[in-house]
Amino acid sequence: MRSDGKRRTRVIVGLAIPLGLIVGGALQDIARIVLPYSATKVFFTSGLTWQSGPMVHLNLIIGSLGLGPVAIDISLLGVVGAVATVRILLTLFE
Questions:
Q1: Is residue 12, in this structure, part of any structural domain at all?
Q2: Contacts of 15 (CB under 8 A, 6+ apart)
Q3: Is residue 36 included in any domain, yes or no?
Q4: Does residue 35 form part of some domain?
Q5: Please, which residues bridge with residue 51 across strands?
Q6: 78: Cβ contacts below 8 Å, ≥ 6 apart
Q7: Is the pTM of the predicted complex or chain greater than 0.90?
Q8: Over its length of 94 residues, how does the chain's per-residue pLDDT go in tens digits?
């Protein structure tokens, strides 16, 4: 039998964190679209953007494929949404 600690770790890694990141990112994008320009919008939706890697083109016989750089965009609203989702899912799976 699995202990509760292992089950909780698997729920966190397998379900809560990925779902929390998706919900947090969606909240961030919705807020950027819906909220009017104000200090509140700037505070909650401005974030750090990190980008790495060059654009890579692969020329195949049939066609070509372009793989762009990887970018991560983190804002306060996205982090708050992710943390709230993780906390809700953990209380459901206790």
A1: yes
A2: 89, 93
A3: yes
A4: yes
A5: 71
A6: 24, 25, 27, 28, 47
A7: no
A8: 456 777 777 777 777 778 888 888 888 889 889 989 999 888 888 887 777 777 777 787 777 877 778 777 888 888 888 888 888 877 887 6
